[in-house]
Amino acid sequence: MMAATAMAAGVRLVCGIVTEWRCDPDATSPRIYFANHSSHLDFVVIWSALPPRVRAHARPVAGRDYWERDGVRRSLARDLFRAVLIDRAPAPVDRCASARASVERMADAMGERDSLILFPEGTRSTTGDIGPFKSGLYHLSSLRPDAELIPVHLENLNRILPKGETLPVPMLSRVVFGQSVRSAADDKQGFLDAARDALLRLRTST
User: Fold this and answer.
1) pLDDT of residue 161
2) Pairing state of beta strands 173-177 and 148-155?
3) Residue (of 86, 20, 12) closest to 44 by Cα position
4) 101 torsion bin: left (phi>0), alpha (psi -120 to 50), beta (else)
5) What is the mean pLDDT of the chain?
6) Which of 14, 46, 61, 109 is deepest in the core (most CB within 10 A)?
7) Could you write out the DSSP letters of every residue in 153-201?
8) Which residues pair with 21 in a beta bridge?
9) Residue 112's CB: how many other CB atoms inside 10 A?
10) pLDDT at 163
11) Three-class SS of residue 14?
12) Coil, strand or helix at 62
């Protein structure tokens, strides 16, 4: 798709993406790419860093409230990125049911060939620290044990598009795709800690 190729090239240029692969970049089996989160550019940068054949089957997970805020964002999310848009629970009493529905929606959206890009912290970091992971990654991996779990560390995106800004500042960024981690087992917290540790190791090794 020409629009996707042009978008990816533009993002790589503006964000000066330097990509490092520690796993097979051309694998076409379903994957769950999970990354640290500091900017609205995060999923766009990961998507743009993927090889074209892989990018065609990579679907970002994103908040519906942000990506349906206007017609341009809505069109990009639906037609270009094929994003899986998730609703945020309106009240605490609804959060558990909403979280379950969101994870099931993600698992179904993968189908037989697609991969997902998501951010287990659940919110953007303003300090650069990687916060505790929410349980969604565990439940998604439990539903999709066939999917390879790939940690992805992003560097400098919070400076290219800081929180509250709308225009990116051209600057170098770095994307490191790590080796796969084990799928979810019975120990939920142990799995989440191991997944977060895999991401932290990528940060300290860059």
Assistant:
1) 59
2) antiparallel
3) 12
4) alpha
5) 87
6) 46
7) EEESHHHHS-TT--SPPP--EEEEE---BPPP-S-HHHHHHHHHHHHHH
8) 177
9) 8
10) 63
11) helix
12) strand
Q: Any idea which residue has 């909403």 for tokens?
A: 98
Contact 24, 53 (CB under 8 A): no
At residue 191, what is the residue type?
F
Please give the Cα distance from 62 to 15 (Å, whole number): 20
Say whether pLDDT at 10 is over 70.
Answer: yes
115 within 8 A of 122, measured Cβ to Cβ: no
Among the ranges given (86-90, 110-114, 136-140, 148-152), the one the predictor scored with the smallest mean pLDDT: 86-90
Query: CA 139 → CA 69, 97, 133, distances in Å?
Result: 28, 13, 12
From CA 54, how far away is CA 134, in angstroms rounded?
26
Give percent above pLDDT 90 in the chain. Answer: 57
Decide: 138 and 191 in contact? Cβ < 8 Å: yes
CATH number of 31-170+196-205: 3.40.50
Domain ranges of the chain: 31-170+196-205
Tens-digit pLDDT profile for residues 148-180: 999 999 987 766 656 655 556 566 788 999 999
Amino acid at 150: I
Structure tokens at 28: 């076409």
Task: Examine the pLDDT at 71 and tell me if it is beyond 80.
Answer: yes
φ and ψ at 202, to 5 degrees? -65, -40
How far CA 103 is from CA of 111, 165, 178, in Å, comes to: 13, 30, 23
Residue in 175, 202, 191, 60 with CA at minimum distance from that of residue 132: 191
